[in-house]
Write a structure and sequence with these properties.
The chain is mainly alpha-helical and about 210 residues long. About 75% of the residues lie in helices and about 0% in strands. The protein has helices at about 1-20, 25-35, 40-50, 55-70, 75-80, 95-105, 105-120, 125-135, 140-155, 160-170, 175-185, 190-205.
Length: about 210
């Protein structure tokens, strides 16, 4: 899978050179770069699009997602706050709509969008991530952790899921619990769990 994305990156880089003003090509390249963990390069492509079209919702949403994966939640919120919720179709993209409302502090609205989407059969991992954020804002750490752990159980090959869980423990001041929990998560994906533990140790100054 990684080789497939690397091939896509090479092809899309060539496409950008031929048509540097095409935002669609740059956004697709950014997605491919993020998929192989080249987050800095991916974010650079997003910024190139936003310099020309600062209200590009797709670029802003992708920028937020990359920032989350890089462990920069404040930067992610900065991208999301630039999105007008009225411009997001909650039925077509409930995860993004919920994220935008969550960033604006409209917890009930965000929670309702997530609940409606899950009830209708949408199992996007971003919905659980948003719900975890909602519960964390409410001070319900147990429910927040529950949704993030469920993400890994359902998507054990997702580096983002492991990164989000690691960041949760760092931000909530539960580093020791996180180290134990991530060790248990090695049963789902050992390499990703070890990387997440290393990231958590680094975030608390023990790496």
């Amino acid at each position: 899978k990684s080789n497939r994305y690397e091939y896509a990156v090479a092809a899309l880089n060539a496409a950008v050179e031929k048509d540097p003003e095409n935002p669609r090509v740059r956004i697709t390249l950014a997605r491919a770069l993020a998929a192989v963990g080249r987050f800095n390069s991916a974010q650079a492509q997003v910024q190139s699009v936003l310099e020309v079209t600062p209200e590009n919702i797709e670029a802003l949403a992708l920028g937020a997602r990359i920032a989350y994966a890089r462990g920069e939640p404040e930067q992610a919120d900065g991208f999301l706050k630039q999105i007008d919720p009225a411009q997001v179709d909650a039925e077509a993209d409930p995860a993004l709509a919920a994220q935008v409302y969550l960033t604006r502090g409209e917890l009930e609205k965000a929670a309702q969008i997530c609940t409606d989407a899950i009830t209708s059969g949408n199992f996007s991992p971003m919905l659980r991530l948003v719900l975890a954020g909602i519960y964390q804002e409410r001070g319900d750490d147990e429910r927040a952790e529950e949704h993030l752990v469920a993400l890994i159980r359902h998507f054990p090959n997702s580096s983002e899921a492991f990164a989000w869980l690691s960041q949760y423990y760092a931000r909530s001041g539960q580093a020791q619990r996180g180290l134990v929990q991530l060790e248990e998560m090695e049963a789902y994906n050992k390499p990703l769990a070890i990387l997440a533990r290393a990231g958590l140790l680094k975030s608390i100054g023990r790496a």
